Automatic annotation (TrEMBL):
Residues 1-80, 129-218 form the Ig-like domain. SMART domains: IG. This is Ig-like domain-containing protein. It holds the Pfam family I-set. SUPFAM superfamilies: Immunoglobulin. Keywords: Repeat. It comes from Oryzias latipes (Japanese rice fish). Transmembrane segments: none annotated.
Length: 274
């Protein structure tokens, strides 16, 4: 959403009317500070949070947590407030000169430290990186997707890298890296050798912050192991003498009275056997 716009969150809670239930709203796992622009409602199992005006600093994970004497439960959503562009990108230069103008402006910002008309005192206070939303450990079945996310603050904007077992992760078909105010890592088609540690590192000129979590890959059950555990037929049911075929002899009371599931076989007696 755009800066200065309203934002609304809501959820339903049960049991209704529980006097021991406590409801709280969190921003990046920290209690949401009270402010005149925030309005919270908790009535008859309906909970809501409204931002009358939202700023870029409000971006993060918003969580509603409910607890009573039996336990705790929560639900979360991501709020992303985009800052309006502070640099005028349009120019009265001819079409062919716009690219050169943009390059000149970027180079000037690099050397002077900020957009035109902004003094050093007006810039954001420089701070070292801080991971305010920590990634969580993951346990997935082999072949599934392992997902991690984090939110980082700091100025100048920190550079964020992910590592798997000490190796830098680069964007590819198997490793998806995305950012929308929150940094995301997805490991697609996980393998057993992916088990280990996932580390996120954020750094800028003022310092570094990092956090490590465990990734556990559970192997899927091999169908061959299921077959090995299948009950074996009793030997008595299948044991037969080599070269002989077993059959039943049924005597019909009348000629032609043979059960439908039986086959008539004429036997010839060889007298030489006796």
């Amino acid at each position: 959403m755009k800066r200065f716009g309203p934002a609304h969150f809501e959820c339903r809670l049960t049991p209704i009317g529980d006097p021991t239930m406590v409801v709280e709203w969190l921003h990046d796992s920290k209690p949401l500070a009270a402010a005149n622009r925030l309005r919270m409602v908790n009535e008859f199992g309906y909970c809501s949070l409204d931002y009358e005006v939202a700023y870029a600093r409000d971006s993060g994970v918003i969580t509603c947590r409910a607890s009573n004497k039996f336990g705790v439960d929560q639900t979360s959503a991501t709020l992303i407030v985009k800052d309006e562009k502070g640099l005028v990108e349009e120019t009265q230069l001819p079409e062919g000169r716009k690219g050169a103008y943009r390059v000149d402006e970027i180079e000037r910002m690099v050397h002077e430290g900020g957009p035109a008309g902004v003094s050093a005192d007006e810039e954001s206070e420089k701070t070292k990186p801080e991971i305010v939303l920590l990634p969580e450990p993951a346990r997935v079945l082999e072949g599934d997707i392992a997902r991690f996310r984090c939110r980082v603050t700091g100025y100048p904007a920190p550079k964020v890298n992910w590592y798997l077992n000490g190796q830098l992760i680069r964007k590819s078909k198997r490793y998806r890296l995305n950012y929308d105010g929150i940094y995301y890592l997805e490991i697609v088609d996980t393998k057993s050798y992916d088990s280990g540690e996932v580390r996120v590192v954020a750094d800028n000129p003022l310092g570094t912050s990092e956090h490590t979590v465990k990734l556990e890959i559970q192997q899927r059950e091999d169908f061959r192991s299921v077959l090995r555990r299948a009950p074996e037929q009793r030997a008595a049911e299948v044991q037969q003498e080599s070269g002989k075929i077993g059959f039943d002899v049924v005597k019909a009371d009348r000629p032609g009275e043979v059960p439908q599931d039986r086959e008539i076989v004429k036997l010839h007696v060889d007298k030489n056997l006796f």
